[in-house]
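Handover notes (outgoing to incoming on-call)

Open items:
1. Short chain dehydrogenase-like proteobacteria domain-containing protein: sequence verified, structure written out, both below. Nothing else pending on this one.
2. Nothing else urgent.
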Amino acid sequence: MKRIAVDDLPEDPLSAAGVFHQHWLPYAEEALAAGDDLLLTFAPADHTHRAWRLAAVAGLARKHAPLRVNAVAGEGEAIAQAERYLAAAPGVTGQYLPLDGEGAGNRADAAR
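Short chain dehydrogenase-like proteobacteria domain-containing protein structure tokens:
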């Protein structure tokens, strides 16, 4: 699974969507054209970014099926654990998953 860390986006959701589509979308399309499943990682953002992020990921997943495309928003170990989960979940695609690195719910490493 190819991971692309989407960074340096503006705080305004409309501007952020524009920068993503202009700058980051070509990298995503290139990875998918090479036959790689894709994980986009975003910095945490408020609810105003959810719609455009989900639409971008879902659109990429539909366009490039049967390859899998997902996105997460978070930091550090939360992203690493989500990537491990998604790599082992072949039926999950087109999803945008905001992560909680503060320990909400069951910890992903508690079952080890």
